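TODO from last week: model UbiB domain.
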Amino acid sequence: MSLVVGQSLGLTLVGDGLSLRNSKRNVGKSKFFSLNRRRLARAALVQARPKEDGAASSPSPSSRPTTASVVQYRRADLADDLQAEARALGRAVDASIYSPELIARKHGSQPFKALRRSLEILGALGGFALKLGIDQKQGNLEKNMKKRAGELRRIFTRLGPTFVKLGQGLSTRPDLCPPDYLEELAELQDALPTFPDAEAFACIERELDLSLESIFSSVSPEPIAAASLGQVYKAQLRYSGQVVAVKVQRPGIEEAIGLDFYLIRGVGKLINKYVDFITTDVLTLIDEFACRVYQELNYVQEAQNARRFKKLYADKADVLVPDIFWDYTSRKVLTMEWVEGTKLNEQLAIESQGLKVLDLVNTGIQCSLRQLLEYGFFHADPHPGNLLATPDGKLAFLDFGMMSETPEEARFAIIGHVVHLVNRDYEAMARDYYALKFLSPDVDVTPIVPALRDFFDDALNYTVSELNFKTLVDGLGAVFYQYPFNVPAYYALILRSLTVLEGLALYADPNFKVLAASYPYFAKRLLTDPNPYLRDALIELLFKDGKFRWNRLENLLQQGSKDRDFSAKDALQPVLKLLLDPNGEELRLLVIKEAVRVSEAIALGTVVDTYNSLPEFLRSLVFNGNGNGPLTMSTTELQSTLELRDQVSRIWGLLQSSESFDPAILQPILQVLQQPEARRLGGRVAGGVGQRLAARFLQQLLRATTPSSAPTP
């Protein structure tokens, strides 16, 4: 979680669905408490920065730090940071973890409290269920679905933080909710009243075991924003003058959430036992979600999430993750760097700073793909409030309370799934759902294949640049809802993340498509990743019915080169190693066949070009007065041969145009080609080319002695 100074409305807080308070105030003129002898007096906050030594700003050559001293300083700084983190972990040693048995034991012994809350929940949800029953009886279930979805969103908001979180979780589950409910629940926002400042300040002192004035020189007189789990203050550190965001947990929130999950688990047991049309294990879903919410209650865990996210993804210059102040962080207090910027859905405010929303969205898409498919650790609460445009054009990620991970095998399976989609191999797509853990191994995928074919045959009539991601997700959601799918949380959350990013981009450009923006990343991974699963997927994409699809390779190179991390060197070497693998005989046969075709196309293309460059009288003279051309080939065959030659030439040009291209990269390739298997492969190719050209030469001799020959252009 981090606070931001909004460029359009004054204060803007991003993270955890925080509701804005007094957002039209001018931040620079806001009133703050100055802490002096534990008494709070109003004062204007000036965003102080660490003091600088005037002499240090223009160091003499002799006083400049050496490389060794800089390294030593960084090591000391890292050591201090690790020690501060260890102290923060010590303060969170008693943090609660989710345990169904513990909450059952605790709240089962408080029957009257549980009964009171049960009646409150039943009163709200019972009326809703009654309306659904009437709709079903009258045949208006579909007609009133959007209306009922809106009512459910408002009920969840009234029932408090647990149900707000529950609704937000359901909004990512297309296997559980129809599309209208998914869309409506995605709009859920935390909007709870603040709790007293005195309680918040007492919590800070109790958690950190320090007086408030020893930590901060100033703090906002009231929360900048409030959310379901806590509220946030803007403050200034006394020791450095740095402006920070201080998140304080709501009193009693753990008790309230524990009681709600105890009651919700009871409902889940009944659903699993008596409701047949819901095939998903509801109790497992509840426990999984409750575990995530309990993790959010531990602010040290959130701080560690932020640090890990920063290490993995903030290596890119256009991604920002705020720093953690470990000495002022505990189980219920989180102190982070204050980030200045604008919410990503405030297009006019962003553009007024000379920034482009689409550039920021593209950054978000590339980072999301890396999260899902590269490292597997990703932000599990993706919404516009957690994405921030900084004045210098960076995309800031905020609020790291709810994170998730993609299993390694699933990362590769997803890329393979995309390959099967491109190939329209719906049987393979259906089987992918086993690897992705969408289906149990005992489920027969045969009935699912026609549903996939019906949807994707229509969707794939569009080009990648035309296909709308939300339409794709909605269509898949309908399939998931009809069949016994159990969509893992990681997959549902990343789909939601990309849908949110596309939605933000559509405000700026109605023609923007997230799939088109994602394709360069997939192309780069397929071309450069040495993982055996992805290498097999690449072969599957490039070869069909024993023929090499050069247009696919050209398209992959065109798209992959759009990714700034694409390297022609990386694209060449793994393919060669795979080709020369001892177990690669089947692939070698295909490659030999294609290499012969290409070599012949280049040779014959050279002959045709030479022939066309000759004057007319020389053509007839050289070819014995026959003006039909130098080759015994039909027009169609000749055109196909020249197209192949030109396509291979374009592909080589794409490799050369890569920023990383250097003739020196061919040196490792030459070393690989010196291997015995490579020499045998080269000999087989040369032999095949020789045979084809000899056959062509014989055809030419026969044509010279035969009055009729195939016409050529």
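Done. The CA atoms of residues 168 and 261 lie 15 Å apart.
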